[in-house]
Specification:
single chain, about 350 residues, mainly beta, Immunoglobulin-like, 5-stranded antiparallel beta sheet, about 10% helix
């Protein structure tokens, strides 16, 4: 009987030592010990990953696998100790409720065609992608010594969005809780990573029906031009778009050499004291060259074709009498599509 009793005790002792290898959420004793050592403890680490802008626009021809946007959390100012491990043990950091996409290492979001990667960055910028498993080393003083795991100072959490397939014209990617961390001892959630939402717009592909226009003012004399009226010709073109959705707006801006006497007009390089004004017909807006605040904006309203109707007019500038010569200037209209 004595041999049997001793054998049972030895077996029980062996099982207890194996089961003690585990990581746990910090208890109050751990918190007090870490505080006494001058460290910063936390029962739970929470981080919010924010995208710099609430909305991004992408080209419809963006290749699959391309990066769409990146979100970052605020860097930790000091090391944060949040896990206590005894006789080794593991901490598992994982994504929450996400399924793998068709691209390696990328998970599906709530939006078809958009995937994400969750990573942890060190202070040097080195990235480790989730899931992450960290194994604690046993204590050197005693097998049951509590060893603490921390996130180092400067640690950040990052979400990268990737194109995994066709994307609808206007979508909202939503995250909420995107990553968690658990110890293998008590299974409690000790890391919570939340992600913000992001609006993605797929822009249409647009061109103009002509890339160059030559405006011929013909022949005219001094009586045909003044400071308010002069020879006028139409400048008409159409913006043609294709893609998943029409543009929300098309903004035209003029670039060229401003006249030295009147910067609202284009400088004429031929006849002196004459300049060229470009104006939108329907709105009466004058397009001033090289002025970012001077634009003509069209709202297509669902149309994939947007005609622009402008007019160019030769006018007198300065105080001297114009001299005979050519009407000659080159300018560029730049379209911004949103």
């Amino acid at each position: 009987m004595k041999r049997l009793v001793k054998l049972v005790i030895l077996i029980s002792f062996g099982i207890a030592r194996i089961a003690s290898a585990a990581c746990f959420q910090l208890n109050q004793t751990d918190m007090d010990a870490l505080n006494e050592q001058g460290n910063t403890p936390s029962e739970q680490v929470q981080a919010n990953v924010l995208f710099q802008n609430a909305s991004v626009s992408i080209d419809p021809g963006l290749p699959v696998g391309s990066l769409i946007a990146t979100g970052l959390s605020t860097a930790l100012p000091t090391p944060i100790f949040f896990v206590a491990c005894v006789n080794s043990g593991t901490l598992t950091l994982n994504v929450v409720g996400a399924t793998p996409s068709n691209l390696p290492g990328i998970y599906n979001t709530n939006v078809p065609g958009v995937g994400f990667k969750l990573s942890q960055l060190s202070a040097t910028g080195a990235a480790t992608d989730y899931p992450i498993v960290r194994t604690a080393q046993p204590g050197t003083e005693d097998p049951n010594q509590r060893v603490y795991i921390s996130f180092g100072a400067g640690t950040q959490f990052r979400i990268e969005l990737y194109k995994t397939g066709d994307i609808a014209s206007n979508v909202n990617v939503q995250f909420g809780l995107v990553g968690t961390g658990h110890g293998d001892g008590d299974g409690k959630t000790i890391v919570m990573i939340n992600g913000s939402s992001l609006n993605i717009k797929v822009l249409p592909t647009c061109t103009v029906n002509t890339s160059a226009l030559n405006i011929d003012f013909g022949t005219f004399g001094p009586a045909d031009v003044s400071t308010t009226a002069g020879p006028t010709r139409a400048v008409e073109f159409t913006v043609l778009c294709s893609g998943p959705t029409p543009p929300a707006s098309i903004t035209a801006a003029l670039s060229g050499t401003p006249d030295t006497d009147d910067a609202s007009m284009l400088k004429n390089t031929g006849a002196t004291n004459l300049a060229i004004r470009l104006k939108d017909v329907s709105k009466g807006t004058i397009l001033r060259p090289n002025d970012p605040a001077s634009t003509v904006v069209q709202t297509p309203g669902g149309s994939m074709q947007s005609p622009f109707s402008l007019e160019a007019t030769v006018l007198r500038v300065g105080s001297a009498t114009p001299r005979a010569g050519r009407i000659q200037a080159t300018a560029t209209l730049t379209m911004t599509i949103l």
